[in-house]
């Protein structure tokens, strides 16, 4: 199994030139059994930019996101986030899989928001946001609470800190989930169809929060069928089908002037 396809040293962690990639996905392959789901996918996401991933169901979008934080192990290629190889460490010419502890540590710097919000039902909004900072990185309770209140305010839920998930709308729960991810101070946020489980009238508030995050310079990879969001917020739109990147470019290019028939068919279908 080849994980590192060449020996170029990763960039120094933490240091970014404008336009430099925060995420580099290079020739990533992934199969489930003998079904190859990702076939040599390459993609670069500059720091502080938003990439929207589009594609029909089954095209490999979720799998790709899951590979970025090592929820799936890749079969080939490599993924680098902020200068660090994901899931593997290099010792000289050799590459070893990280220990579960190292993987967990690496994953903490990557926030992920799912279609289903996965909040803890027995914890309030505030407690959901505090849970990882207190339980995982041992921040003090008072510090974690103060930060959680700030984050709930940022997603428009300052007045709902004491509510349990069942007392919140789907859109509010999703905004709590975003606040919870932000509580770990991620350098990258991954969103997997964050609004597709929501009633249409609740979608806007969630997209507004994401828009605001983008404006503040968060690096984001977003799987969504919200073409309006892609058009307004994305720096890069990537269309995937059958485990390959069919077309990638600016929203103007990919959405406004798609070069490939498959892209045109898909855009027609989500109108
Ligand atoms: P998308 O998010 O674009 O709809 P996915 O990445 O979820 O696509 O899935 C791509 C393909 O991989 C699908 O055919 C799906 O059935 C398959 N797949 C995803 N996860 C698994 C898994 N854990 N085991 C087996 N097959 C999987
Ligand atoms: Mg998916």
UniProtKB/TrEMBL annotation:
Similarity field: Belongs to the ABC transporter superfamily.
Record's keyword terms, sorted: ATP-binding, Nucleotide-binding, Transport
Pfam family, any one: ABC_tran
Domain ABC transporter: 23-267
Enzyme class name: translocase
Reaction equations catalysed: a polar amino acid(out) + ATP + H2O = a polar amino acid(in) + ADP + phosphate + H(+)
Gene3D superfamilies associated with the record: P-loop containing nucleotide triphosphate hydrolases
Domain of life: Bacteria
EC number(s) on file: 7.4.2.1
InterPro entries named among the record's database cross-references: AAA+_ATPase, ABC_ATPase_HisP-typ, ABC_transporter-like_ATP-bd, ABC_transporter-like_CS, MetN_ABC_transporter-like, P-loop_NTPase
GO terms for MF: ATP binding; ATP hydrolysis activity; ATPase-coupled polar amino acid-transporter activity
Protein name: ABC-type polar-amino-acid transporter
